[in-house]
Amino acid sequence: MNEFQQNLRLLRPVWRGLPLIALCTVAALALAGLYLRYATPLYESTAKIKLAEGNEGVVNTTLLKTQDVFSPDNRTAAEVELLKSPLLLGKALGRLELGTTVYRRGTLRKTELYHDSPISVHMTLRGHRWEDEAFRVTVLSPQSVEVTSPAGETVQGEFNSLLHLSEGDVVVEKNLALLASRPDFPLLDTYEVVRHSPARLQDAILSRLDITSVDKETPVLRITYRSAVPEKAADLVNALAQVYMEDYLETKYKVANTTVDFIGKQLQTVGRSLAGSENSVAGYRDTRRIVNIGQQTDTDLHKVAELKLQRATLDMSLSAAEDVYRQMQAGHRNVLDLAPSFAAFSDNASGDIVRKMKDLQAERRDLLVRFTPEDEKVQALDQKLADLNAHLLESVRNTRNTLVVKRQQLDAAIGQAEQVFTGLPDREKDLAVLERNRQLNEKLYTFLHEKETEARIAQATPSSSHRIIATGLVPQEPIAPNPVLIYTVAGLLGLIAGVVLVYGLDAARATPQDTLRLQRNTRLPVAAALPLLPEPQMQLAYFRQLVTRLELKGLLRDGAKVVVTDFTGSEGQAFFFRHLSVALAEQGRRFRSITLQDRNSLNPDALPNEVVLVRNLPLDADSHSLAVMAGADVNLVVVDSHRTPLTRLAELEQLMEEYNLPNVQCCLNREGYRPGFLACLWPRLAVAAPTSRRAAVRAGAPATA
Q: Cα(350)–Cα(388) distance, rounded to whole angstroms?
């Protein structure tokens, strides 16, 4: 079997059960229509509020926008919670007077009347036991009325009269304005009145109230309410939006007034603190003779740096003088040897002497070329060099002493200049503290002065930065229930339920249906599979072929006793036996056909040159049928595809094993026959109708079709 045939077999129950599926779908649609007829419609109304932007307000500024302690958080989420708060919701409900609800009672449902109520009921309850409980009000006549409490207590009276109950008083009045405008409006009826507790009323309103923001980036709030009365939905969203605007203005004016008073007091205090800080700074500068501590410090530092630079230069000269003096005292007489030391020594007089000595030494070397060292000219030149050397030594000593004195003077000057920096960090710190206090007081004073101006502007401006950009309109069409959606869902559910029911009935029926299913549920071989044969010519032609196939299988050989059996006698045994006998007769086969009526019927064995066909008793009718099957050569058990349960196949296998029944094979009758739901139901109704008619006749009642 290919895949297409397999899928076709799976869809066959759906095709056969189309009437049942259609019936389930129609029933689901009918239930949906019944629900839509009696369901209470819901209407939705929406109002929108645009919140103030961060830079909106009077002269494009917000009061105290940098101080969170004075400015409320205007984020959208906070405004949503504010609109849902019991404070604003209670104010809105107080305006609409929704504490008492009047319903008109019908047979299957009740309808809220709201403004269309012909009566108005005023209750004064002395406790909370009857709150949120239903009172029944029955208008008996245009003048009299009857009130029944939730406890069953009943009292009658006239309109506009005080009716006393055990836990409260009730006054019922006519809505004269409505009755005058609509004379045909019914007054005499039964009503249901509920006095709501504030907490439960707010919870009921919140359950149908939806407050959201249009977008995260757009500060627009959308207030939506759903109600069974269109006018009530519009009135509630408009009242809540108006209460929100009024509360915003009230809060704004309250904040502005409080801020103006507070800032005025703080300005006086901060002004006094600022004056004290300025006086402290001025007194400290006068006491410490400070004009500009930064410039003075820079000047003193520059002076000390110059003195230290001079001292460093002097130290270099003194070190060179000390070196020259030490070397000359050590006996160095050759001026040329002392020349490197004189290069670092910067005394002018010594430099002249050194240059003269260098000139004399050069002259002496020239004389020694011509004269000996003992010559008078050489001796006279040596004497001059000795005098200049002594003079140089004295000059170096005097220069060194002068440099030492200068260094001492520079040290004294540096020490005196550095005394200015003694205590400088403390002075700077004290002055910085005083300046900081003065600057803080000055900034605070300036800030408060600016905010006082903004607060006075906000106080004098009778406007709100929030705006109602869309008011709630009275809806004309309900949002729920949605007929299209309900009919679609109901039809789909009815279709699914019908398909599930069809497959469930198909599984519960559990009959062989076809050869494949028969082979799946039994190990017995299938000798023949008979299709539905409505025409006699078709029946005869098929059984001719069947006889040939059975002969080829060796089931109709000479000397064989073939027993045809079924379970209940209504599974096609007689049809199979009769037509098989006719087919054998047409082929000229020698055979005998025997029909057993009871256990006393003759049941001979077959002769060697003939075939014996035996129509056995049904297995459910008599156990003798098992004995007949035990003596047969071939047992053909007729199984109907539509009537034989699959469980009987397991019973047949058990009987075969228990009684050693020989060569048991199945013959499937009406293979592939799958009648529809109505085709199965009609025969049962046809059988049940005469039975009920006969029962009615026996009971003495007239029979009905």
A: 10
Question: How many other CB atoms sit within 10 Å of the CB of residue 261?
Answer: 11
- Find out whether 610 and 559 touch, Cβ atoms under 8 Å: yes
Q: How many H-runs (helices) and E-runs (strands) does the chain carry?
A: 19, 19
Query: Could you give the CA distance from residue 42 to residue 291 in angstroms, rounded to a whole number?
Result: 83
Count Cβ atoms within 10 A of the Cβ of residue 592 and give its class: 0-12 exposed, 13-18 middle, 19 or more buried. Answer: middle
**pLDDT tens digits for range 473-490:** 999 999 988 899 999 999
Region 229-233: mean pLDDT is 93
> Strand runs (DSSP E) across 70-207, as ranges?
100-105, 110-112, 119-125, 134-139, 144-148, 154-158, 162-165, 168-174, 190-195
- Residue whose structure tokens are 């109505």: 678
Cβ–Cβ < 8 Å for 466, 248: yes
> For 364, what's the count of Cα atoms within 13 Å in the CB-facing half-sphere?
20
Rounded CA separation 303/421 (Å)? 12
User: What distance in Å separates the CA atoms of residue 116 and residue 574, rounded to the nearest whole number?
Assistant: 78
Task: Name the nearest CA neighbour of 617 among 628, 609, 602.
Answer: 628
Q: DSSP readout, 260-284?
A: HHHHHHHHHHHHHHHHHHHHHHHHH
Confidence bin at 510 (pLDDT 50/70/90): confident
> What single letter denotes the amino acid at residue 189?
D
Tokens of 12: 């066959």
3-state secondary structure of 141: coil
First-to-last C-alpha distance (Å) of the chain: 48
pLDDT above 70 coverage of the chain, percent: 82
Which of these, 631, 580, 577, lies nearest to 603 by C-alpha position? 631
**Contact at 8 Å (CB) between 98 and 257?**
no
Q: What are phi and psi of 496, to 5 degrees?
A: -65, -40
Rg of the chain, C-alpha, whole Å: 63
8-state DSSP, 422: T
Question: 296-300 long-range CB contacts below 8 Å, 24 or more apart?
Answer: 297/421, 297/424, 300/417, 300/420, 300/421
- Among candidate residues 41, 26, 189, 31, the one with its CA nearest the CA of residue 105: 189
What phi-psi label fits residue 559: left (phi over 0), alpha (psi between -120 and 50 degrees) or beta? Answer: left
State the Cα–Cα distance between residues 669 and 531, nearest whole angstrom. Answer: 7
The lowest-confidence range among 160-169, 201-210, 411-420, 532-541 is 411-420
Taking each helix axis from N to C terminus, what angle separates 86-96 and 198-208, rounded to the nearest 10 degrees?
100
Residue 561's pLDDT band (cuts 50, 70, 90): very high
If you search the block for the tokens 């799946």, which residue do you land on? 520
Whether the upstream peptide bond of residue 481 has omega within 30° of 0, thus cis, is yes
**Nearest-angstrom CA–CA distance, 673 and 680:** 12
pLDDT at 69: 37
**Residues 363, 340: Cα–Cα separation, whole Å:** 21
Type of residue numbered 570: S
Taking 3-state DSSP, the helix, strand and coil percentages for the chain, each rounded to the nearest 5, stand at: 55, 15, 30
Confidence grade of residue 68 (pLDDT, cut at 50, 70, 90): very low
Give the integer Cα–Cα distance in Å for 547 and 587. 9
Which residue type does 238 have? N
Residue type at 55 in one-letter notation: N
Q: Which residues of 346-378 are buried (b: 16+ CB within 10 A; e: fewer)?
A: ebeebeebbebbeebeeebeeeeeeeeeeeeeb
Rounded distance between C-alpha atoms, residue 378 and residue 402, angstroms: 36
Residue at token pair 């789909």: 492
In this prediction the pTM is: 0.56
- Residues contacting 350, CB < 8 A, separation 6+: 324, 342, 392, 395, 396, 399
- Residue appearing with tokens 């009672």: 105
